[in-house]
């Protein structure tokens, strides 16, 4: 009897843990949707399709499976050499966003347009700064 009870408690603890982390992921995606609207939408658009010849579509599962590239692009943006010297800012660096906001944006775009949600830890974002 006692034994059954402790197994029951053990199982309950496990499933509570799983529920909490699912909720955490959902919260992160929610924050990501807001942060995307504030910082990415004006170029990549709310539907992620971007704008032909100007802003690439983010609705690209192969791109959204590339975690290091996503962290790198959001933190440091993209620039290209100009023909007459100097650099042209194609996508501005967004390193002013917090580690959590960057993790949230990546969770949001991968969950919405990728094959599976990618949850990047805040430590991983910090390490890429
Ligand atoms: C001012 C416009 C602008 C904003 C704001 C912007 N981007 Fe971009 N983004 C671009 C452009 C332009 C490129 C393509 C750069 C290039 O040609 O390499 C790009 C490229 C990317 C890529 C790589 C696409 C690929 O095919 O390699 C990703 C991912 C991306 N942006 C995500 C984001 C996210 C997430 C945000 C918000 C946090 C954001 N961008 C904000 C303009 C923008």
Automatic annotation (TrEMBL):
Entry-linked InterPro entries: Cyt_c-like_dom, Cyt_c-like_dom_sf, Cytochrome_c-type_DH
Stretches assigned to the Cytochrome c domain: 27-113
GO molecular function: electron transfer activity; heme binding; metal ion binding
Signal peptide: 1-20
Keywords: Heme, Iron, Metal-binding, Signal
Superkingdom: Bacteria
Protein name: Cytochrome c domain-containing protein
């Amino acid at each position: 009897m006692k034994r059954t009870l402790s197994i029951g408690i053990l199982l309950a603890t496990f499933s509570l843990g799983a529920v909490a982390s699912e909720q955490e992921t959902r919260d992160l995606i929610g924050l990501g949707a807001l942060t995307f609207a504030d910082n990415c939408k004006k170029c990549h658009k709310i539907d992620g399709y971007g704008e032909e010849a100007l802003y690439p579509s983010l609705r690209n599962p192969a791109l959204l499976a590339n975690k290091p590239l996503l962290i790198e692009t959001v933190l440091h943006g993209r620039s290209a050499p100009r023909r007459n010297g100097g650099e042209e800012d194609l996508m501005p660096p967004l390193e002013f966003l917090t580690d959590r906001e960057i993790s949230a944006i990546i969770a949001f775009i991968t969950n919405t347009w990728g094959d599976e949600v990618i949850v990047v830890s805040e430590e991983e974002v910090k390490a890429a700064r």
